[in-house]
Write a structure and sequence with these properties.
It is a single chain. By secondary structure, the chain is mainly beta. Helix content is 5%, strand content 34%. The chain has one helix spanning 215-226, and strands at 50-52, 58-60, 66-70, 75-82, 93-98, 104-114, 117-126, 141-149, 156-163, 169-177, 201-204, 206-207. The radius of gyration is 26 Å and the shape is elongated.
Length: 227
Amino acid sequence: ASNILIVNGVGANGSSAFYARQDHVHPQQLTYDGNVTATKFIKTGGLATEILCANGDTTTIDSKLSRQYNSGTGGYIRLCVFPAGTSIGAPYIQFQVQCNTNAMQTIDLVPNYSVNGISALYGVFTAPSYVQTIMNVYYGVDQLLHTHTGTGSQAIYSVWIHMMSGSGNATVTVSKQGIYWSQRVTEILTQDIVSSITGSQTQIPMTFNLGTGGIIGDILQNRKQQQ
């Protein structure tokens, strides 16, 4: 009878009538259910300028983190989470959103951290290049908002955008991120689009282009045509 070596388990004390050959080979355990701790993980052929992804792929440090969403029926996309913190230090992150109209929108986010926790979230949220004559957004993101749980030093802010129905496939990309306090920006683009969100919501106003080709230019052009 053959006796197979135990791959992973608890050994038993005592004596045994079996012994191992001098050329025996221990089986490998290739699947782990739980946390794995090591001083380093090395992929054959990997470079110092590459990052090892969870699925075994590699990407370069210069590559932008992005994700595509199907927003045909609209919905909410979570951009990131600002965790609880009790010291001064403001991270910065910028997202770009592009949908089927090729209308690029930019979102800049800076939370205000203090010794008492997060007190506010500041943002600059641009309108798409194409808006209706009544100054409504035609396709793309029409709302930037944040929800929060906890208060004071336990406050956690989650940042969301609302995609309008009919926007089709939308690509959200991290276009810039500050090097300071980057650990205070977590769960970046980790969640799929959802139809609704719960909790207290605070909306950040949209910024329209008031210059040439923007709202003021459109108003002047429309008034000129009416004369």
